[in-house]
Amino acid sequence: MRSTVRAVTRRRTNVLEVAYQMSSAVSTRTPTGVLELAVEQVLASMRPAALGDPVVGARRAEESLRDALRDAGPVDDNIALQNALACAEAACEHLKYCEIQEARTLLTAARGQLVLAHERA
Q: Looking at the domain 2-120, which fold is it?
């Protein structure tokens, strides 16, 4: 049992390290960068292998995503970024009710929209 707990803890640490390394590769000065970083970090933290307690994980992910949505600020003419924000907001609602699979689907859609937002920026 202890070896299983250690393995899960190591995996969780590795996921956080990867998210931190990704944060240096993504510019967070733009709304697109802020949201992209948050989406990638939340998706990494919500992998089935990384989730110890799904309720606690969903709450942390929701808080992180809501902070990023606040930091992203208003978006004017970039439709793809508006769509990504809408997907992320909907994912927050699903995380509030611990609907992890639905949130992951919406965050994956948000990631696709963020790729388009980069192309149009």
A: Four Helix Bundle (Hemerythrin (Met), subunit A) (1.20.120)
